[in-house]
Amino acid sequence: MREFMGSRRGIAVLGLAIGTISGWVAHANWPVTPDDAKSDQSATAQIEQFQCPRGLTKIVVMHGQEDNFAAGAAEPAAIRPALLRFEQFLQFSEDRHGMFSFRDYDEPGTDKFLIDHFELPRGVVSGQILTRLREFPGSKTDSVSVGNLDPTAAPAAFRGEIMYGIPALRQFPADGTGLIKADFKDLPPKPSKMKGAPTFIEYLNTRSRPDAVDLKIQDDTAVDFFAFLLCQEPSEPKGTSLSEVDGNISEIGMSYLSCIEDLTQPSCNPYSGDRLCSLQTPIACYRDGERDIPKELMNENKYFAPDDAFVGGEVRMSRPVRADGLPTLDSANGFCAAEFGKGWRVLSYHEAGGSGVLSYSKIQPRNFGLVHTGGHPYANCWDRPASVIRP
Ligand SMILES: [Ca+2]
Ligand SMILES: [Ca+2]
Ligand SMILES: [Ca+2]
Q: What is the Å distance from ligand 2's center to 9 Cα?
């Protein structure tokens, strides 16, 4: 074994053999950003500026510090504890592997494996990987893999591993800072002959996977830090509500439904909803009409209701209902029609264009009801995208 280890050629052959584990991605391309305007931005700035579509939650999980490999406090990588029952992972963790050393973040040198694990949530709709890598001799043949390193993991067919390779190293900018960004959708899928989730994001959303995702970078590349930037779907379906302001506007026979004016109510959220669809909640139903705004509300007035929120129809609150039993907007509209008659439908969040609705309606202060919010698929109990979480 010593002779074999002593032979660079031998190591190269072994490296090639290991390379084939994730070598099926070796020629795939995905965008790096060495030359565009963002390349002089720090990863920290890019993480801050990373935005998720409205209604999704931004989650950042970063291991190692972005310090461009500066010496200082240790930046440890750690093998997932469940893998330590396998001999080679134990050897790596105790740094007594016969062929290779174990590498922490920032650690320079060749013939070392960085193996780490990240607690990542499920329900990820989109996201990206951000890392900074530094080449050493031999880096050209290196691989970066994320997935499940358990050699016995079912149902993968190939050595148990479920790996999604990131063949980035050859595309390093020679004069750049080594910062690399990969959108999940640009990561190459697994070959179809292998079982398990076909793409990394599907693996991420697999309920039965280990809670932690493994990372392996082998064997001649140093790593400043490694980060996952995620956009997560709402964990529980909620719909958007408007609440009746506790004011004196009922004096003139009117209602003012608003998003945030009543501070005793939870703020409404027209991006990811604010009332659980699984709870009994009234629906704000609406029938269009032709009434004119009363003179009392023109110009400055004592009712604190903006006249541009006026609509000519009437709003009524339905009896409480579980809106998750109304799968589509059509069915919710049908519920209003069944409740109040022909012409009634769900009130729109934007009925008056903004987030408030002023109308001739009889609604008790602090009553609230679900409305329909167009343009934001996670804002309604009906017509929601299916969860991305898979068995
Ligand atoms: Ca450091
Ligand atoms: Ca190598
Ligand atoms: Ca670092």
A: 12
How many domains would you assign to the chain?
Answer: 2
In angstroms, what is the span from residue 20 Cα to ligand 2's centroid? 12
Tens of pLDDT, residue by residue over 151-202, are 887 655 444 456 665 554 444 443 377 888 888 887 777 666 666 778 889 9
- If asked whether residues 343 and 291 sit together in one domain, one would say yes
Where among 232, 260, 283 does a domain terminate?
232
pTM: 0.81
Ranges 37-46, 59-68, 77-86: which has the least confidence: 37-46
Q: Which residues surround ligand 1, an ion (CB under 5 A)?
A: 67, 70, 72, 106
Average pLDDT over residues 17-33: 32
State the distance from the centre of ligand 1 to the C-alpha of 48, rounded, in angstroms: 20
Name the pLDDT band for 25 (thresholds 50, 70, 90). very low
Structural domain harbouring 112: 2-232
Q: Separation of 93 CA from ligand 2 center, angstroms? A: 20
Assigned domain for 389 exists: no
- The distance of Cα 49 from the centroid of its chain, to the nearest Å, equals 15
Give me ligand 3 centre to Cα 47, in Å. Answer: 15
Considering the domain architecture, whether residues 157 and 244 belong to the same structural domain is answered as no
Which ligand gives the minimal distance to the CA of 169? Answer: 2
What separation in Å is there between the alpha carbon of 223 and the centre of ligand 3? Answer: 7
Query: In this predicted structure, what is the pLDDT of residue 192?
Result: 60
Ligand closest to Cα of 64 equals: 3
Q: How far is the CA of 105 from the centre of ligand 1 (A)?
A: 7
Q: How confident is the model at residue 264 (pLDDT cuts 50, 70, 90)?
A: confident
- Find the 78 Cα to ligand 3 centroid distance in Å: 15
Say how many Å lie between the CA of residue 114 and the centre of ligand 2: 12
